[in-house]
TrEMBL record:
GO cellular component labels: plasma membrane
Protein name: Ionic transporter y4hA
Membrane spanning stretches: 12-30, 36-56, 68-92, 104-125, 137-154, 166-187, 224-244, 256-273, 294-317, 329-345, 352-369
Record organism: Nocardioides islandensis
Keywords for the protein's UniProt record, in alphabetical order: Membrane, Transmembrane, Transmembrane helix
Membrane topology: Multi-pass membrane protein
Presence of keyword GTP-binding: no
Domain Sodium/calcium exchanger membrane region: 37-190, 227-369
UniProt-annotated location(s): Membrane
UniProt cross-references to InterPro entries, sorted A to Z: Alkaline_pH_Ca-Antiporter, NaCa_Exmemb
An example Gene Ontology molecular-function term: sodium:proton antiporter activity
Length: 371
């Protein structure tokens, strides 16, 4: 009887009910233009679904361990990001040729500056230094730099097409190269040098850890499988509800006088919210390496999975695909790279390092509003 009561209580928890409720709300509102009151309700449900996704992602991460746990959330959220970009490019009422570039670059800037910056500040609050594995984190940053250069910087300097676009052959090369680079990194992270991406000794203390793997003891297989299913439901609901809200987002951006490119920033913020919360919570538990795995993993997955998928989607899309960054964006990316390298190389960081990354993100957001 007690066991049955525990199972019933588990199923009645808000983290279990929210993904289902969000999916029902999505089914009821899909393809419609909601009124203001309904849009507010959708926004509340969307926020709750994001928080539920974070919870279930952490359960799965505890079950599979690092670095697989970080990959689960990074890949899952990136798949949702791809679906959202393609959906908006197909159904968008305005020119969407730059939507993929704006969204991917926003995801990169939010990940390598926002998530990294917050994680370092939170992780260093109590101990004054955030400690992590420089070898693994350096490999992650190097992969992000390579992917960003291949797909977002080079189109600005190629001459086959007149604008900041790749030709069909160049786009195919960039897509294949990006996917291969990402897969090489995943192999390095999960097989060849897995120890480089694990929390460093003494980083996470004060948590139950009977198996001494640097993490709280994992849940059982049944709990992890249930959370995996609910995570998928929650993420699908998040992107679906974000799509329902997207016309209001576009109208809101236009109403307050922001450039249309700022829509990409809003989409990236919505999509990366689960990873951001997970990373900050991990940093607060002194697992900064996990936070950095999430941050850089999100950035490289956003490029390494999104660009190849968008490249294939261009076969059916009418609008051209503009990938080349503008001059201001390239400068911000270069500064992010320099500061990121100086942060990663020592293997430990002060709150100042996190503050520098957050300052770069603030500059990016401000210049996205007033270019």
């Amino acid at each position: 009887m007690a066991a049955r009561t525990d199972v019933r209580a588990r199923w009645l928890q808000w983290t279990t009910l929210t993904p289902v409720v969000a999916l029902v709300v999505l089914a009821a509102t899909w393809g419609r233009e909601p009124a203001a009151v309904i849009a507010f309700v959708i926004a509340v449900v969307l926020t709750a679904a994001v928080l539920a996704a974070v919870h279930h992602a952490e359960v799965v991460a505890h079950r599979v361990g690092e670095p697989f746990g970080s990959l689960v959330l990074a890949v899952a959220v990136t798949v949702i990001e791809v679906a959202l970009i393609v959906t908006l490019m197909v159904s968008g009422s305005k020119d969407t040729s730059e939507l993929a570039r704006d969204t991917v670059f926003a995801a990169v800037m939010i990940s390598v500056n926002g998530i990294v910056g917050l994680s370092l500040v939170v992780g260093a609050l109590r101990t004054k230094l955030a400690v992590f594995n420089a070898e693994g984190t350096g490999s992650s940053l190097a992969t992000v730099i390579t992917l960003a250069t291949l797909t977002l910087v080079l189109p600005r300097f190629t001459t086959t097409e007149p604008g900041p676009e790749f030709s069909a052959g160049q786009l195919a090369f960039a897509a294949v190269a990006s996917l291969l680079v990402y897969l090489m990194f995943v192999f390095t992270q999960t097989v060849q040098h897995r120890d480089f991406f694990l929390p460093v000794e003494g980083e996470a203390q004060g948590v139950p850890d009977d198996d001494h793997d640097g993490h709280a003891d994992p849940p059982d297989n049944r709990t992890a499988l249930v959370s995996l299913g609910l995570l998928v439901v929650a993420l699908v609901s998040v992107v679906g509800l974000a799509k329902v809200e997207s016309p209001l987002i576009e109208d809101g951006v236009k109403a307050i006088g922001f450039p249309h490119a700022f829509v990409g920033v809003v989409i990236a913020l919505l999509v990366l919210l689960p990873e951001s919360i997970s990373a900050v919570r991990a940093a607060s538990r002194r697992k900064v390496q996990t936070s950095l795995n999430l941050a850089y993993g999100s950035a490289m997955a956003s490029i390494g999975l999104t660009i190849p998928t968008i490249a294939v989607a261009t076969i059916w899309l009418d609008d051209p695909l503009t990938l080349g960054l503008g001059e201001t964006q390239i400068v911000l990316l270069l500064v992010s790279v320099i500061v990121g390298v100086l942060t990663v190389v020592p293997g430990r960081a002060k709150p100042l390092n996190g503050g520098l990354h957050l300052a770069i993100l603030a500059a990016y957001v401000f210049l996205s509003i007033t270019p």
